Structures are given as structure tokens and as C-alpha cells.
Amino acid sequence: MSGGNKDNGTMDNRTTDNGTIAFALRIRDGATIRELRAEAAPGRTVLDMLEAARSGGAAVPAYRHSCHHGSCGTCGAVVNGLEALMCLTSAADLAAPRPRLPGGPAVPPELDDDGAVVVTLEPLSKMSVVSGLAVSPGPVFAGIPAGVSYLAAVEDGGRAPLPPDPEGARAEGGGGPADDSRWRPAGRARFEACIECGLCVSACPVAVPFIGPAALAAANREREKRPERARAMLDAAARPDGEGPCGRHLACSRVCPQAVYPGKHIQLLRNALGRGSSGGSGSGGSGR
Questions:
Q1: Please, which residues bridge with residue 99 across strands?
Q2: In CATH terms, is domain 138-147+193-273 a member of 3.40.220.10?
Q3: In angstroms, rounded to a whole number, what is the distance separating the alpha carbons of residues 261 and 248?
């Protein structure tokens, strides 16, 4: 168990002679907490530590991962009380003062009796746990309106014209049903910033039926891109489980790794519905 030791919060006090930092990883695995010891260079990540331990033959609880650089959104977890992508949370981050709740004050890391930095890893909340840290992200997708496009327009910036679309995807203003998710803007396009990692859903403190910040952000982006679908998106936001339960805690925006700021999109939906800053009946009382 932790000895609760504290120092002045500088990473230099925790680096070993070879420049690495010692960690005690305490990983939730059902009703059990499994502890792994690790050493990592400041630039290595939590996901790197888990991969190294697994490669070395340690019994590591299950976890999800793919890209290792914050693009796929699969390695989300609650790291020392704060929702984060394990592939973007570095050893240096964990050895320095950081919040333990979204929007909370930065506090020095906890050290165990051997001076190792204690890191607790837990699965995202509001998700079905498959095993260990691995969750099924169904709640992230459940409330996203059908047919939402995952593409957004990008300015040409003086680049050469695009070749014809080999996939034949429908261009902006083309025919087809209004809820066709194959819609794309005319010209250059990129994927929307949201990577559907579920951190915002996990961090949200709302404890009543609520489609969630990811779904509402997607609805507002669809409204902004496709005026013909604006009414349908506003109708979705106006449902009892739409924007109303949001209490403006802004935990969703604070943990988002892609700066989507779901709280901003929820407010824009409220403005369009003529509801201003109303809502907030669903606070779960956790302050998150």
C-alpha cells in the first residue's frame, strides 16, 4: 500500500541514475487490483509500460490499443482519477503535479514506500467492461444520430485540384437520402476531430438518461455542415435525454484529447433551441 510520501513535485527527484522513472502501476482487474513495477524514460507512455510488461511475460490485465499516437481512441482509461488516452499520457506527465479530476487542482504524484510513482489504472465508467481495462464503447455510439457524416470541409489553400473521387461518394448537394452517412463536402475533406474515444462520456457526471456529450457534439457538427438536417439534429437535442440534463460541468471538454470541446457544442445547440444556459437537472453530484 502507498506510503503517501510527497516531495516538491519536480520530476528530477524521481528519475533514477539511468534517467528513468520508477512506477507502481495499480491496475483494476474486476474486483482485484494487480500491481506491476515498471521503469520508463520520461517520454515513454502508460501504454508503452503496459506493452513492455506484457512483452516481458508479466500477467497484464486486458487493455485495448491500436495506433499508439492518439488517433484511434481505443486506449482510454481512468489514469489516477482522470480520463486519458494511455498512449498520450507520458511518464513525465505522471511524475509531475497534475489534476486528479477534470478541472481540479494539480497535485503532486503519490509515491509508495520505495519512492515509485503510484499510477492507478481503471476502466472507463459508463461502459461495459470486457476484461481488465478493456471496455465495450457502446454508450459512446448509442446516441449519435443515424446518418451523421464523419467528414468535414478543408480549405484548398492554393493546392492543386483534387482528382475525381474513385469511391463515387456523394458530393455536397447531391442526390440521395438526407441521412446518408456517405455525404461529403465538395472539395477537400478531412475526418471530424472526434475519435469516439469515450473519455467525455466517462467523465460526464450526469446520472439520469442522457445521450451524452459525444452524441450532442456530433449532432451540432451535422447541423452546422448540413442545413437540410438542422431540424432533425435540433429535435434530437430537444429530447428529454438530449441537452437538458447537461449541468455545464465541462468535464467532457477538459478531458477531450482532440479539443472537440463537447460542452461548446451543447451550448450552441441550446442557443439554437432558444434555451440559453438552461438545463442541468442531471448532475450526479460528483463534481465531474
A1: 106
A2: no
A3: 12
Q: How far apart are CA 15 and CA 3, in angstroms?
A: 19
Each residue of 86-102: b (16+ CB within 10 Å) or e? Answer: bbebbbbbbbbebeebb
Please state, in angstroms and rounded to a whole number, the distance separating the CA atoms of residues 102 and 82.
Answer: 6
CA atoms within 13 A on the CB side of 9: 8
Q: 230-237 vs 262-273: helix axis angle to the nearest 10?
A: 100
Q: Dihedral of the CA atoms 30, 89, 103, 129 (nearest 10)? A: -20
C-alpha 130/C-alpha 207 separation (Å) is: 22
Query: 164 in helix, strand or coil?
Result: coil
Q: Quick one: the chain helix, strand, coil %, rounded to 5? A: 25, 20, 55
Q: State the Cα–Cα distance between residues 42 and 134, nearest whole angstrom.
A: 25
pLDDT in tens, the chain (288 residues): 334 444 445 555 566 667 999 999 999 999 999 999 999 999 999 999 999 999 999 999 999 999 999 999 999 999 999 999 999 999 999 999 999 999 999 999 999 999 999 999 999 999 999 999 999 998 888 999 998 998 888 876 677 766 666 555 555 544 445 566 677 777 788 899 999 999 999 999 999 999 999 999 999 999 999 999 999 999 999 999 999 999 999 999 999 999 999 999 999 999 999 987 655 555 443 333
Each domain of the chain, given as residue ranges in start order, spans 11-136, 138-147+193-273
The CATH-assigned architecture of domain 11-136 is: Roll (3.10)
**In terms of C-beta distances under 8 Å and separation of at least 24 residues, what long-range contacts does 48-52 make, across chains too?**
49/23, 49/25, 49/91, 50/25, 50/86
